[in-house]
TrEMBL record:
Lineage, highest ranks first: Bacteria, Pseudomonadati, Pseudomonadota, Alphaproteobacteria, Hyphomicrobiales
Keyword Electron transport among UniProt keywords: no
Gene: lspA
Organism encoding this protein: Candidatus Afipia apatlaquensis
Protein's name in the database: Lipoprotein signal peptidase
Compartments where found: Cell membrane
GO BP terms in the entry: proteolysis
Amino acid sequence: MRATLAVAATWYIIDQASKWWILNHLMNPPATISLTPFFNIVLGWNTGVSFGLFGGLGVPAWIFVAFAIAMSAALLVWLGRANVPFVRVAIGLIVGGALGNATDRLRRGAVPDFLDFHLGNWHWPAFNMADVGVVCGTSLLMLHFVTQPGSANTASTQEER
């Protein structure tokens, strides 16, 4: 469990440090910085959930914070039963990312997004390092469950061994 909490804490620090640097140094004043033909650094504020869903609907930030904390708590309970290192890393990434975005919602009322990938004029919604942790962690979990059929419960008891 300690290793997973270390993953979560490390990802949280990466997320918060990257947002601090973007807000206080790179995007002061805000600009669009083109790094490659398909990637920019921009500054956007997400008041919704992933990819801006439910943004602008007037949903209070504390609802999203409460949801992130509840999901993190549920994942940590699951972590107590998980015996697959792959799953533990995935849970750490998700928890670190969820708590990173929850911190921003509490501090700023919105989440700063700055990674902008695009193809011509089509832009994927901007995101941040917390989002990367949540997406990568979720992808790792999905990969685990697809490659390990019947492992919905990653815990095993002494009788099963």
